[in-house]
Amino acid sequence: MLIFERSRNGRSAYSLPPMDVPESVLDMEPHLIRKVEPGLPEVSELQIVRHYTELSRKNYAVDVGFYPLGSCTMKYNPKLNDALAESEDLSFLHPYQDEADLQGALELMYNLQNMLCEITGMDAFSLQPAAGAHGELTGMLIIRKYHKVNGNTHKKKILIPDSAHGTNPASAAMVGFEVVEIKSDSEGLVDVEELKKHLDENVAGIMLTNPNTLGLFEKNVSEVVQLVHEAGGLAYYDGANLNAIMGIAKPGEMGFDIVHLNLHKTFSTPHGMGGPGSGPVGVKKFLEEYLPVPLIQEGEGGSYTFKYDLKHSIGKVRSFYGNFSVLVRAYAYIMSMGAEGLKKVSEMAVLNANYLRKRLSERFKVAYERICMHEFVLDNYPVWKNLGVKTLDMAKRLLDLGFHAPTIYFPLIVKEAMMIEPTETESKEELDRFAEAMFRILEEAEKEPDILREAPKTTPVSRLDEAKASRHPVVRWRKEEERGS
Ligand SMILES: Cc1ncc(COP(=O)(O)O)c(C=O)c1O
After folding, report:
1. Helices 324-360 and 79-86 meet at what angle, rounded to 10?
2. What is the DSSP letter of 210?
3. What pLDDT is recorded for position 359?
4. Strands 407-408 and 417-420
5. Which atom belonging to ligand 1 lies closest to the Cα atom of 279?
6. What residue ranges do the domains of the chain occupy?
């Protein structure tokens, strides 16, 4: 029962001591005074507790179970980092406070800028962008401005492999670039010969997701970057999948000029659900002057200040200085893991993905059967063709078996794709449980396929009209008489 339906006039969840100060009457403009009661539910404390507990039980989260949502890095994030981000010292700061009052926060951001430089091999970082795609947009604005400043306004083409994350072409197009798709080769990597065909004086740059969305490391990455540079383009690294390479490889050392990271995947803030994110953008020295302002700099006497005087800055891409609470979590995570810890994270993420890939390949077809990075893609086309069961049905059945479904039908270059990212925080036993569930689903597909087509049966709602849910979402309770409108 919803909280509004539990409401009864006069019931309340609080009791206040008698007033011991004179009642004051607000001197407000009459038009600002509410004429109708706000219509809040009147319930007891117990009813509120039950309401929220019930809501939380309807939800699935990484704190509940395995969440192998490929491309999203739904790993467990230490609660300690949440506690630090919520601490009064940090969460009660106001961005309009004086620099002198914000020294601790500025120092944290300054150190984080430097740590991200060290992790990626770049020279300067802006912490402003609020998401991965926002980082991409920032990077594209930098590329556009760089070519403009250098008198190369004809450079309009951005090359993007077909195995890139879907946000890449969207970000390039938003900035007015012409997107040119580069086909993958038979190994699922950038086809270098195909790339060469598109290299000419109009190339503004390349956007490379690495590891790509097949979970594969672009082994020809240095050659790709060199070719683009020779054509006068810049090389952009989508580093949202950094969970796979931390402490092992650096985009800067691969030759890239710009990189974005997803702090809300790799560095201890949960990804998704519309929560705050952070997509910092790092650049090589020659592009530092193009970054959004302000950066944080160390001033005289060890104090920290905002730096606004960047000659070619693309301006601000977000109000204030980025999603500060996400920056705090990232800082705490990096400090507590240390260099060795971060490397271990990537090693474990890759090990877990390869273990699960190997186990599943006993009965399933893996799209590109070779050592993967942090994730891999199943090609379930044979199941669909031979047994008439879609990847969607299999994913829905996983919900009944207690797992979050992997990403499905992405990347687009694999038919009936199922993209699985176990992350480093899962145990071998959990991976085995998931593999067993997948084998069981395959047996059901052979013997009782309707179980799969009718799944899920154990969730609060079964199959939704997903198009309607996204086009016409109903996200608040409405009175009976308002429903249906
Ligand atoms: C490789 C890659 N690039 C870009 C993005 C976009 O990031 P965001 O969802 O924060 O916009 C993602 C998201 O997971 C991603 O996996």
Report:
1. 170
2. S
3. 98
4. antiparallel
5. 10
6. 80-336, 339-470
Cβ of 241 closer than 6 Å to ligand 1, yes or no, is: yes
Q: From residue 228, how far is each of 69, 157, 172 by CA, in Å?
A: 32, 11, 16
Determine the residue type at 450. D
∠ at Cα 132 (319, 119), nearest 5°?
100
**Cα(first)–Cα(last) distance of the chain, in Å?**
22
Helices 132-149, 167-174: inter-axial angle, 10-degree rounding: 40
CATH of 80-336, picked from 3.30.870.10, 3.90.550.10, 3.40.640.10, 3.40.47.10, is 3.40.640.10
Q: Are 298 and 292 in contact (CB under 8 A)?
A: no
Structure tokens at 120: 């990626």
How far apart (Å, rounded) are the C-alpha atoms in residues 106 and 99? 8
Query: What 3-state DSSP class applies to 349?
Result: helix
What pTM was computed for the model? 0.92
pLDDT along the chain (485 residues), means of 10: 88 93 84 87 95 91 95 95 95 94 96 98 98 97 98 98 95 98 96 98 98 96 98 98 98 98 96 84 98 94 94 96 96 98 98 98 96 98 97 98 97 96 98 98 98 96 90 83 64
Burial label for 23, CB within 10 Å (0-12, 13-18, 19+), is exposed
CB atoms within 10 A of CB 333: 22
Closest residue to atom 4 of ligand 1, CA basis:
132
Q: Is residue 238 lining ligand 1, measured as CB closer than 6 Å?
A: yes
Q: How many CB atoms neighbour CB 123 within 10 A?
A: 14
Instruction: Report the separation in Å between the CA atom of 267 and the middle of ligand 1, taken as the mean of its atom positions.
Output: 14
Q: What is the pLDDT of residue 173?
A: 98
- Which residue has its alpha carbon closest to ligand 1 atom 15? 240
The residues, any chain, with a CB within 8 Å of residue 344's CB and separated by 6 or more, are 247, 337, 424
Q: CA dihedral in degrees (64, 66, 72, 73; nearest 10)?
A: 100
Q: Do residues 113 and 307 touch, judged by C-beta distance below 8 A?
A: no
CB atoms within 10 A of CB 75: 23
Per CATH, 80-336 and 339-470 having the same topology is answered no
- Strand spans (E) along 218-267: 234-239, 258-261
- Ligand 1 pocket, 263 CB below 6 A? no
Provide the pLDDT for residue 273.
Answer: 65
Unique residue bearing structure tokens 């979050």: 404
Residue with tokens 């699960």: 356
Q: Compute the distance between CA of residue 22 and CA of residue 455 in angstroms, rounded to an integer.
A: 61
Class of domain 339-470: alpha beta
